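**User:** Hello, beginner here. Are you able to go through the protein record under this note? It all follows right here:
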Amino acid sequence: MEILSKSLEQTEKVAQEFVKKILAEKRDKALVVGLHGDLGSGKTTFVQLVAKNLGIKETITSPTFVILKNYTLNTKPYTLLVHIDSYRLENGKELEKLGWREIINNPENLVLIEWPELVEDVLPKDIWTINFGFIDETTRRIDL
């Protein structure tokens, strides 16, 4: 489904619908969501809005330099939001050094990963995908 968002408010509505959908998911492993798109296409903003809708109060910033950030959730079935930015990684082996296998094997983890194509060699087969596109200063394309 393709959505053209012309404002932060419209993108937040997309994030709200996404959160409703993921909260209904019952899984035996983590839910991994790959966020594809160029720089400035809205990936981190989407993560911020998803986190807000999951009740996270702290400021969400891109983990570009630390690679991975964890946020505690009080929203079942998830107890941890794992935000990963793979931009600086060369392959999945580097992600595995950060405890990737443990992260994806825990069904209470929600993993939002920016630049997943850089570590696709270690991604599960059932990854969800969202594509983001920069249209202009106020418009983004979101493909769910």
About this structure: The first strand starts at residue 2 and ends at 5. The two ends are 5 Å apart (CA to CA). The mean pLDDT is 95.
